[in-house]
Specification:
The protein is mainly alpha-helical. It is about 30% helix and about 5% strand. The chain contains three helices and two strands, in the order H-H-E-E-H.
Length: about 90
């Protein structure tokens, strides 16, 4: 399979939502998975992108990929708090 998209990159504003995670007692971090996402295409147009706030798991993009079920609630809380803060004009 030929891939014609660049791998994800971190902009200078990366992890601005980490404060929401800290307020919820969630550790927010980044690690390279070697994958690409549609967010890369959007970011290439200089449009801010909030991406990869989904469920935790492992073995991404393989036949061994898995989901940690309890992380669905964690990520829903993180997304909700982050969106509320953005809607209220708060700095992240």
């Amino acid at each position: 399979m030929r891939r014609n998209r660049k791998a994800a990159f971190l902009a200078g504003t990366g992890f601005r939502f980490a404060g929401s995670g800290e307020d919820l007692g969630q550790e927010i971090g980044w690690r390279d998975t070697g994958g690409v996402c549609d967010g890369n295409n959007i970011a290439a147009c200089n449009v801010p992108v909030v991406d990869t706030m989904g469920a935790r798991g492992g073995a991404i993009h393989s036949d061994k990929e898995y989901l940690i079920v309890q992380s669905l609630v964690e990520r829903a809380q993180l997304s909700t708090l982050t969106i509320l803060r953005l809607a209220n004009g708060e700095e992240l």
